[in-house]
Amino acid sequence: MNKVVFILNEHAGNGRSKKVWDSWRGKVTFPYTFCVTEYSGHATEITRQCAIENQEPLLIVAIGGDGTVHEIISGATGYEHVRVGVISAGSGNDFGRTFSVFQSIEQLEAYTYEKYDLGKLTNERSTYNFVNNAGFGFDAKVVYSSNNSKWKKWLNAFGLGKITYILYVVKELLVFQTFSFSLLTKEDTLKFDDVWFIVVCNQAYFGGGMKISPSSLPNDQLIEMTVVHKLARWKLLFIFGTVFFGKHTKYKEVKQLQAKDFTIRMHEKVYGHVDGEFSCVTEQEQCFSFSVQPKAWNLAKPLRSKRS
């Protein structure tokens, strides 16, 4: 196997990823292996298979959005000889707002790498990795509804797929039922009522550029929880506008906590997401744990990168 593997998600960014690859492939001067994903989770399978077959230093390059990057890093975790590189070609690209990405073939010919943390969300049956963030509530319901909308494919054909997301933001703003959960600590149990959403972050951004967790760093072995609760329906939309600048933290309805791990008990059925993709629907009184796995994966980065 070649020492460089490109994994393309042709559907990322409403087809933008395929156009990006078409503009890159004719310029590649080194041997490489090329794979195209065919279904959800396929990038993880490809990455693990490549890692097993080649025990020498291996660069696996994601061409897609945050979902594709999430899958490849999940597959690469635990394989010390694998480095993950990214060519951002999705819709939101929150990964590229914090982490270094490749912007030219020349950068791929000579690169360095750095270790980063990985977040984990677990319950009694499942474990979900997250590079960016994971959580429950309003944002997860919007993601689930828009991704499963019959209108999305039709709008994507005209390059208007983001309108689907906006439509469901407005809809859920009108009909979403807030929920309650308890944060379980060694000293106490803190109950939060009238909650719009919970998000636990390993880096600052989510939702296509919203700076939801300004203090989050992906290599400090800590994670941050943001809770939005007891907020009037009309005010939610206003606060969402301030999130792009990280100014939402000044509102009393926004609570932020930092730790190495969190354990919560969900008191109602609520939709969840991991790195912007649907994860599960919680069960009543179900417990979930968030934790951080330090230095769990290797990010390949340009030698002259200015980012962390």
In quaternary terms, these chains amount to single chain
Strand segment count: 15
Compute the number of structural domains. Answer: 2
Percentage beta strand: 35-45%
Q: What is the element string, with H for helices and E for strands? A: EHEHEHEHHEEEHHHEEEHEEEEE
Number of helices: 9
Q: Give the second-level CATH assignment, the architecture of the largest domain.
A: Sandwich
CATH topology of the largest domain: Tumour Suppressor Smad4
- Point out poorly predicted stretches: none
The assigned structural class equals alpha+beta
The coarse overall form would be globular
Q: How would you sum up the major sheet?
A: 11 strands, antiparallel
Mean pLDDT: 90
Termini, distance in Å?
30 Å
Topology:
Elements: E1 4-8, H1 16-25, E2 33-36, H2 42-53, E3 58-64, H3 66-76, E4 82-88, H4 95-98, H5 105-109, E5 111-122, E6 127-130, E7 133-137, H6 138-147, H7 150-156, H8 161-175, E8 179-184, E9 189-201, E10 223-229, H9 233-243, E11 254-259, E12 261-266, E13 271-274, E14 277-281, E15 286-302
Helix pairs in contact: 2-3, 6-8, 7-8
Give an overview in words.
The protein has 308 residues and is α+β, with helices and mostly antiparallel strands. It has two domains: 4-93, Rossmann fold (3-Layer(aba) Sandwich), CATH 3.40.50.10330; 122-293, Tumour Suppressor Smad4, CATH 2.60.200.40. 28% of the residues lie in helices and 35% in strands. The chain has helices spanning 16-25, 42-53, 66-76, 95-98, 105-109, 138-147, 150-156, 161-175, 233-243, and strands at 4-8, 33-36, 58-64, 82-88, 111-122, 127-130, 133-137, 179-184, 189-201, 223-229, 254-259, 261-266, 271-274, 277-281, 286-302. The strands form two sheets. Strands 5, 6, 7, 8, 9, 10, 11, 12, 13, 14 and 15 form an eleven-stranded antiparallel beta sheet that branches. Strands 2-1-3-4 form a four-stranded parallel beta sheet. Helix 2 runs parallel beside helix 3, helix 6 crosses helix 8 (161-175) and helix 7 (150-156) runs antiparallel to helix 8 (161-175). The longest helix is centred in the middle third of the chain and has 15 residues, at 161-175. The mean pLDDT is 90.
